[in-house]
Amino acid sequence: MSFYFLGSFFFLILNKAVRGFNKSNKFIKIFYFLLFGTFFTSIILSINYFCSRNKNNFKTYKIDEISKISNPFLKKDQNLRIFYLRISYRQYKTIVLRTDKNVEILDKTKSLQLKLSEGSLGFEIIRDFSLILK
Q1: Angle at 93 between CA 62 and CA 88, to 5 degrees
Q2: What is the rounded distance in angstroms from the CA atom of residue 106 to the CA atom of residue 112?
Q3: Is 112 exposed, middle or buried (0-12, 13-18, 19+ CB in 10 A)?
Q4: Which range of residues forms the domain containing residue 95?
Q5: Mean pLDDT by 10 residues, the chain (134 residues)
Q6: Cα(17)–Cα(13) distance, rounded to whole angstroms?
Q7: Could you tell me the pTM of the whole model?
Q8: Where exactly are the transmembrane stretches of this chain (predicted)?
Q9: Does residue 66 sit in the same domain as residue 97?
Q10: Number of domains in the chain
Q11: Are residues 62 and 124 in the same domain?
Q12: DSSP, residue by residue, 38-104
């Protein structure tokens, strides 16, 4: 939430500087679009998350591929992994999760079990996940 206030603060500072360089104010329109678009998105997703139902269900998906994302800001034992999951014959889902499992365990995984709950607006919320070994 504080990022939006910082964005508004920088907008007030940049508003005077940009008006002198650009008469059509396209930069300001793009800035408004990005600022209020992300604000609106965060409000919608927050309502979906905080007003969600407590009923949880479990879904298991087959893992096709696991990739690693390098992130220097994480601890050494935590990594970001991209899981490419097969939903049906031609449908795939990509999920980025933070895991502390080492590579040997990830190579042996066959499926990913997700603990899901339905949000108030219909979007699924991932509550927890577990790796299913071969």
Answers
A1: 55
A2: 11
A3: buried
A4: 56-133
A5: 56 60 63 74 86 89 82 69 82 81 75 90 88 81
A6: 7
A7: 0.63
A8: 30-51
A9: yes
A10: 2
A11: yes
A12: HHHHHHHHHHHHHT--S-EEEEEEEEEEEEEE--TTS-TT-EEEEEEEE-SSS-EEEEEEEE---HH
